[in-house]
Amino acid sequence: MARHHGTPRLFRHGPSAEVRLLVLALVALALLITDARIRVLDPVRQAVAVALYPFQRVVLLPRDGVQTVYEWMNAASLIRNENEALQRQRIELSQVASHAAQLAAENAQLRRLLGISDTTAQSAVVVEVLYEPPNSFNQRLVFNKGSNAGIAPGMPVIDEGGVVGQIIRVTPMTAEAALVTDEQVSIPVQILRNGLRLIAFGGDSAGEMEVRYLAANADIRQGDTIVTSGVGGLFPAGLPVAKVDSVERDTASGFARAVVQPLAHPERYRHFLVLQVDTAGANMNRDEAQAGEKQ
Questions:
Q1: What is the DSSP string of 257-269?
Q2: How many CB atoms lie within 10 A of CB 23?
Q3: Torsion angle of C-alpha atoms 84, 88, 89, 93, degrees rounded to 10
Q4: Nearest to 235 by CA among 175, 157, 160
Q5: CB distance 35 to 41 below 8 Å
């Protein structure tokens, strides 16, 4: 058996590490120059890239998963915020549309009121409802103008439908009116068809008026229109008041009673006209009439 005799590997001598590093650096530099000049290593680079691609995808899976979850959460949050913004925008647009419709209706009513004020001989003050006192027995409205605007107790309140009520109390900044359906209000009226003079009172039922103390054979019919007669001076003549709804005749007592429906609709509007009539002169005429009756 032959025995190999030679120098042990531990004691073999070769090129030093510095020499090998220099050689490798020169080889790398040569490869870089060659690839930059004639790009001979492109096929090798592409083959290596294709071989390494599956490993790259596996390595990048955690990052891609985290990014996908993050994007999904951001998308869900974005969609939720957009839905909330759209809902808020719809609500705001609905409020704007409702407010615009309300303003249009109020402007139309104000134009009608101004048209009425042009046809009346008395000067008028446009008032707006502040609130309606919560009282089930009396039917009242409180307006935003008072004695500072020239409003005084006794002045009539009208809208485009006719007589709404009468001012009963004022302060410098506000005025309180009793509606024609209030029990404390009485208005001298006449039937438009035949001129029969009557007195209309606030009715016992809400939203109604009554014409009392009629002769059983009085010429009043269902459907007749009742207007102010001008007697007393507080309510100018010719203002629409109500329409006769029914007539009850009691032949035994010799009297009749009519239930009438007001033509004005104070529950529908916020603006009204207060006619600035001469309340002092009207009260003086009333006192003189009462004194003449006593004599």
A1: EEEEEES--TTT-
A2: 11
A3: 160
A4: 157
A5: yes
Q: What is the pLDDT of residue 176?
A: 94
Residue 104 tokens read as 């249009």
Domain 124-294 classification at class level: mainly beta
β-bridge mates for residue 126, sequence order: 273
In terms of Cα–Cα distance, which of 187, 165, 154, 189 is closest to 281?
A: 154
| CA–CA gap between residue 49 and residue 68 (Å, rounded) | 25
How far is it, in rounded angstroms, from Cα 188 to Cα 166?
A: 13
How far is Cα 295 from Cα 87, in angstroms, rounded to an integer? 76
Question: How many Cβ atoms sit within 10 Å of the Cβ of residue 255?
Answer: 15
Q: Which residue has the tokens 């006449």?
A: 190
* Domain assignments of the chain as residue spans, ordered by start: 19-119, 124-294
- Each residue of 61-119: pLDDT tens digit? 888 788 888 888 788 788 888 887 777 777 667 667 766 666 676 677 666 666 665 55
- The series of mean pLDDT values per 10 residues for the chain, 295 residues long, is 52 72 85 72 76 80 81 81 77 68 68 63 84 77 93 91 92 94 90 90 82 87 91 86 91 86 88 86 53 42
pTM flag (> 0.70): no
Q: Both tokens of residue 58?
A: 């596996």
With vertex at residue 145, the alpha carbon angle to CA 144 and CA 147, rounded to the nearest 5 degrees, is 150
- What is the three-class DSSP state of 201? strand
